[in-house]
Write a structure and sequence with these properties.
The structure holds 2 protein chains of 2 kinds. Chain A is α+β, with helices and mostly antiparallel strands. Chain A has one domain: Alpha-Beta Plaits (2-Layer Sandwich), CATH 3.30.70.20. In chain A, a hairpin with a 2-residue loop joins strand 2 and strand 3. The N and C termini of chain A lie close together (about 5 Å). In chain A, about 35% of the residues are buried. Chain B folds into 2 domains: about 280 residues, TIM Barrel; about 130 residues, Dinitrogenase iron-molybdenum cofactor biosynthesis domain (Nucleotidyltransferase, domain 5, 2-Layer Sandwich). Chain B contains 14 helices and 16 strands. Chain B has an 8-stranded mixed beta sheet with strand order 10-9-8-5-4-3-1-11. The chains are: A alpha+beta, B alpha/beta. The interface between A and B is medium-sized, with 14 and 16 residues.
Chain lengths: ~60, ~475
């Protein structure tokens, strides 16, 4: 299982880029995407996915 | 050097006629003010945000390299962006450290008033610290004469004291809106700290504790700290005197109480719930209760995280990515014009102080007179040198038996009202000028003059191009003497 970013809601603040323990989030063109093969939903690192916890727009970083 | 960017260059013989005047306010007395150590004065005298006097002469640039934030304030929504909107947290373009350097060099070469480079968001100025310090490092190497300045919510500031000192970041602003968690929990939706999102009172406690720790550690290390507080009516308005006393005790150099900017169109929580901001007179009332505590900043313009220019003017649109030279065409940094400008400012400051000397005494003969609020149209240089119709803001001065003091500004925002010069469009201006008796402008059209007169506000051109404080003192004396004669 992985998370994804709802691009239409994303402010492109980039906080998740450096909070992600798996380095699974990167810029692609004008938007950020989560690489599904790298995302572990933070299992083994944290109780909750960091991208969702830090995101300023609720419902933008969600299970894919 | 471009003549246009030197607002006060000798342009008429009128300045000398300013005659008797009085000194400015805050940190603007003949250097250094009696309650300020020389070392502090040296740090602030060219910083437009830390010195009221300096803001007439010097410009800043905010580079928007910090889009991410680790807290959510109820007055902030970074998604909303309008190029004409001036408020923190708003920015049109986000920059990498290299792009930021490129932009600062271009601006520094074109704007000799530039003295400060700040990072103020649009998120938190310390959250993405790697990128933020990388930016400061590049700028410090290329343009060592510019001061570095940082604005943060304070959550992580105590983790970065060493970097702040290493980079010689002399000025740090922390936004502290409350001391009590019961109040702060109404201002913040959440705080991201130690890998989790905290809400409610817990979040507030974490943030407040970290802010106080950060403030103490910065001031102990000798960094000048300004504290910003957003005034939110019915939430923290009565609490701000306590905040003022607490931050003063911990060594804050300046306290800046700013009005909440609230509008449903901004999409902020406060905007959507109908929480209103204070009126200008409510803001002044709170600021007046703080006099005697930490030194107050009253000239804040709540500028954008990508603002460029003197406070109160935003030239950011002239320096967007598309207007910057390509990497191949970019000129190297050239400090010569800035150095020449600073010499000119020193001379001008001496002349202004001389012209202003003595007007406090002129006011002293009127100790029994009611205070007078005067709004001024100025492009900088401490002179009345702007057309009423071009003013995007008015600087407000209060005259009473003690003398003349700068007390704040009122926004005109005419660019958002689709037109100018028609009576119906003047209503917002008249509302913004509540409590003001006289407006001093370089020039004013007949229509606006008549409309303001009907609202009881007189617009005068008689002090065009003269220094502000002596002119305000003269208007005060004339006004109050007339009152006496006619009474």
């Amino acid at each position: 299982m992985a998370y994804k970013i709802i691009a239409s809601q994303c402010t492109v603040c980039g906080a998740y880029e450096f909070e992600c323990p798996n380095k699974a989030i990167a810029m692609k063109g004008e938007i950020y995407i989560i690489k599904a093969d790298k995302c572990t939903q933070c299992e083994g690192f944290f109780d909750i996915p960091q991208c969702a916890a830090v995101c300023p727009v609720d419902g933008t970083c969600v299970p894919a | 050097m471009n003549q246009q960017v030197i607002p006060f260059q000798a342009r008429s013989g009128k300045a000398g006629k300013a005659g008797k005047g009085c000194s400015g306010c805050g940190p603007s007395e003949d250097p250094p003010p009696s309650d300020m150590p020389r070392a502090v004065w040296d740090k602030i005298q060219d910083h437009p945000c830390y010195s009221e006097e300096a803001h007439h002469y010097f410009a800043r640039i905010h580079v928007a390299v910090a889009p991410a934030c680790n807290i959510q304030c109820n007055y902030c929504n970074r998604k909303y962006d309008c190029a004409n909107e001036s408020r923190p947290g708003v920015v049109s373009e986000r920059l990498t450290p290299e792009e930021a350097l490129h932009k600062v060099i271009a601006v520094a070469n074109a704007v000799p008033q530039l003295s400060v480079v700040g990072i103020a968001g649009p998120g938190d100025g310390l959250y993405d610290f790697r990128r933020i310090f990388a930016t400061f490092r590049l700028i410090a190497q290329a343009l060592p004469d510019l001061k570095l300045c940082l604005s943060t919510n304070g959550l992580t500031v105590s983790d970065h004291i060493d970097d702040i000192l290493d980079l010689n970041i002399d000025h740090v602003t922390i936004t502290i809106n409350a001391l009590d968690a019961e109040i702060a929990e109404r201002l913040y939706a959440w705080v991201f700290f130690c890998t989790r999102r905290w809400t409610g009172r817990e979040a507030a406690r974490i943030l407040l504790d970290r802010q106080m720790e950060g403030l103490e550690r910065l001031t102990e290390a000798g960094v000048l700290v300004k504290v910003n507080s957003v005034l939110v009516p019915s939430i923290n308005d009565r609490h701000l005197p306590e905040v003022n006393a607490a931050v003063k005790r911990r060594g804050a150099f300046l306290h800046n109480v700013m009005p909440l900017i609230s509008n449903p169109a901004h999409g902020t929580r406060f905007g959507l719930t109908g929480q209103r901001g204070p009126t200008p007179m409510e803001l002044k009332a709170v600021q007046d209760t703080l006099a005697g505590g930490a030194r107050l900043m009253r000239h804040c313009r709540q500028c954008r995280a990508d603002a460029v220019g003197l406070l109160g003017e935003d030239r950011g649109q002239e320096f967007t990515r598309e207007h910057l030279p390509s990497a191949a065409d970019a000129l190297p940094p050239d400090p010569v014009a800035r150095a020449a400008y600073r010499v000119l400012v020193e001379e001008e400051r001496q002349i202004r102080r001389k012209a202003s000397a003595g007007a406090d005494q002129a006011c002293h003969s009127l100790t029994a007179a009611t205070p007078l609020l005067v709004a001024v149209c100025t492009k900088g240089g401490g002179r009345i040198n702007q057309h009423f119709g071009h003013a995007r803001e008015f600087q407000v001065f209060e005259a009473d038996g003690q003398g003349v003091r700068f007390i704040g500004h009122r926004r005109a925002d005419h660019y958002c009202q689709g037109g100018w010069g028609k009576d119906e469009n003047l209503d917002p201006i008249i509302t913004a000028l509540a409590g003001i008796a006289v407006v001093l402008a370089a020039k004013v059209g007949e229509g606006p003059r008549a409309a303001l007169a009907r609202a009881g506000i007189r617009v005068l051109e008689t002090h065009a191009l003269e220094y502000i404080e002596p002119s305000v003192a003269a208007v005060f004396a004339a006004e109050r003497n007339t009152f006496r004669v006619s009474a």
